[in-house]
Amino acid sequence: xxxxxxxxxxxxxxxxxxxxxxxxxxxxxxxxxxxxxxxxxxxxxxxxxxxxxxxxxxxxxxxxxxxxxxxxxxxxxxxxxxxxxxxxxxxxxxxxxxxxxxxxxxxxxxxxxxxxxxxxxxxxxxxxxxxxxxxxxxxxxxxxxxxxxxxxxxxxxxxxxxxxxxxxxxxxxxxxxxxxxxxxxxxxxxxxxxxxxxxxxxxxxxxxxxxxxxxxxxxxxxxxxxxxxxxxxxxxxxxxxxxxxxxxxxxxxxxxxxxxxxxxxxxxxxxxxxxxxxxxxxxxxxxxxxxxxxxxxxxxxxxxxxxxxxxxxxxxxxxxxxxxxxxxxxxxxxxxxxxxxxxxxxxxxxxxxxxxxxxxxxxxxxxxxxxxxxxxxxxxxxxxxxxxxxxxxxxxxxxxxxxxxxxxxxxxxxxxxxxxxxxxx
Length: 425
Prior knowledge:
Blueprint: E1 9-12, H1 19-29, E2 32-36, H2 51-65, E3 66-67, E4 72-79, E5 82-89, E6 98-99, E7 102-107, E8 110-113, H3 116-126, H4 144-154, H5 161-166, E9 170-171, E10 175-176, H6 178-183, E11 194-199, E12 206-212, H7 217-232, E13 233-238, E14 241-246, H8 250-263, E15 272-276, E16 280-286, H9 295-300, H10 309-317, H11 327-333, E17 343-346, E18 350-356, H12 367-378, H13 384-391, H14 395-407, E19 411-414, E20 421-424
Parallel strand pairs: 1-2, 11-15
Antiparallel strand pairs: 2-5, 3-6, 4-5, 6-7, 7-8, 9-10, 11-12, 13-14, 15-16, 16-18, 17-18, 19-20
């Protein structure tokens, strides 16, 4: 078959009960296939027993062993003159799907049991409830901070129960939810805060550390920005004028921080971590990508699957975040004229945004690269033919220089064929 096992594909040489864990994993998280009659290296060995009987056996094993029973299809197929059986499992809505009382998930090409936090998320998903929808642990909440920001951003003089209901912080059944508790002046939710560390020359020298916790997400947000401004914004005297300088774009930090708060997983023992260095800031947000969105969609697609839609909605109303799904594009935009670019690292349990110190006019470019770079600074985007005409380069030279600038992460290309254009990142 000349393919390898993956997150959504598992091979089995023969039918045994172990595949039922993977059925649970696919039903809980994402569609996947299990192919019988293929070894771990992707070599087709064929099903040794009667394919029809084995297919029926597989069907009975799933029906008898999974609770609830997920949606699946079984196909018998001839490949390389051998017979294989393909079981396609669909992600279900009635999570969690148990095998022998345990729920499973995929971890790369392995299948593992979910922990209690993940099991709780699956259970809430199964009843169409987000973590932030749960009843708050305290119903004695105050919203002075939220009221002050609403007054400034939305012209609302006083907060009341109707406004809290409109913001979805107070449930129709008569209680504050967890989102409301997180946005209240004080809360008792463990690990719901931000841990900020400012390092010196290396990680062995800590200049400043503060953990902002058990207070409103708005307090956390604005306090973290104040700390950022203390270390990365300064004033420079130019004649009689004071000019404000930003070592790292404030808007890029602001957007990164807002994204971390809005999209993080809350029911885990981990703070949002902000590590401040002399040459960069790293923002680590607990929880990987929400189900239903790929890394490429997260980075390039302007697609937003909201893990915490209530909190996101409040931050949107307060003008802290704009249109959902545009955060990465807005961060990148702040580095348009910088040779150093932000980096985004996505893993199963964490998203890390790295914001480097901006480096303007410090480009290590050849003469030809500088010509095209300066040209693209003046234009929004250009085609290769436009660049040929403006520089006098021939086609092959232009392509060579453009590819070099792309490799250096200075420009990007979009479109294809006659619509292909280039622009600065």
